[in-house]
Amino acid sequence: MAHPTLGLMFGSLAALLILAAFLAGSETALMSLNRYRLRHQANAGHRGARLTEKLLARPDRLIGLILLLSTIVNVLTPTLVGLIAFRLGGDFLVAICVIALTFIMLIFCEVAPKTFGALHPARLALPSAYVYTPLLKLLYPFVWATNLLANGVLRLLGASQQQASNSLSSEEFRTVVAESGAMIPHRHQQMLVSILDLESATVEDIMVPRSEIVGIDVDDNWDQVIEQLRQCQHTRLPVYEGEIDRIIGVLHMKRVVHELARGRLDRESLIEVASAREAYFVPSGTTLNLQLSNFQRDKRRMAFVVDEYGDIQGLVTLEDILEEIVGEFTTDPATMMHKDVHKEADGSYVANASTTIRALNRSMRWNLPTDGPKTLNGLIVEFLEAIPEPGTTLKLAEYMIEVLQTGDNAVKTVRIRPPATTNSVIS
Description:
Elements: H1 6-32, H2 35-43, H3 47-57, H4 59-89, H5 91-119, H6 121-138, H7 140-156, H8 170-178, H9 186-197, H10 203-206, E1 208-209, E2 216-217, H11 222-231, E3 236-241, E4 243-252, H12 253-262, H13 267-275, E5 281-283, H14 288-298, E6 302-306, E7 312-317, H15 318-326, E8 341-343, E9 349-352, H16 357-364, H17 376-384, E10 393-396, E11 399-407, E12 410-417
Parallel strand pairs: 2-3, 5-6
Antiparallel strand pairs: 1-7, 3-4, 6-7, 8-9, 9-12, 10-11, 11-12
Helix pairs in contact: 1-4, 1-5, 1-6, 2-3, 3-6, 4-5, 4-7, 5-6, 8-9
């Protein structure tokens, strides 16, 4: 019986080593692929991506195929090396060649290809799909039998065979957005994260407080009402009788213009027009994403926030919720300065104490506590447990706050020094 030539044996050995490197690298590349990028490429019509996605849909079959081929290669390679060494130099050379083969396979058939597959998964995984797809069909009976035995062992060990979900939680999505770098502009990243934040914030967090609601009191002098309408900067105004809890309805300024054009605007017609649009009330604990859906469903743009007793606590508009996503409409996005905050020459900030803490943190990139009162005034009063006098200084979460003005049992204006501009600690 003729023995194979050394040239054929060396050629077979080289082929086995190349195959071992391919199996190791492609396995790592396939398991390291970005599944969402792969899905995008598959939807765009990339055939390699479609084949890869189909293979990864059943990872047990793919891994079974790769390990089956790897086992064959790992058995044949040292056997072939032993035959070559024995023919060239006897038993002594066999031992040397086995040691050399171990080093070669470790470096060139394991570490190097797997590192390449981890660093450049798409460059290796997508072409490999053209190889594994026909091989899986050809060797399917062997792969099926292998997986059957492996799954039986998993059941004995109590391990679940359910495939892990590729869906992302909200926190995982935040991480993906944060790690996107230059692929997603920074402002768009902020908008995406802000959309997620709508689930954790309520209308109470962003509402205009009751004391700051601008409306029409029909009990006021008529000339005063007309002057208020003339100077109004809002499209819609609540109309009430005596106090905001006795609300009549919501007045659209377009209707006022129509009544003026007809020459019949008086107190009675104003009440009639306002009554045509009933007030819309929402509980204070309503989340922003739910309220956004409610505005869309009910075709409303303004809602009154009420507490558990039905008393009006504030006012929230569709624009307020949209500003939570895109930022202040009246603010230059380049400066990101809140409309109620003014920067001083010394690096401190003078702020309106009725501003919500959430708005300050978002627009100024601060980290004031948000687990208690909703406004800066409420935060200061809760901390001091009293209405402070002007000149009072306190420290809240590394922010130095000086009370500048008080009135009507509330803090009106404060000076804030963020940690970066704080030079000393006042206790």
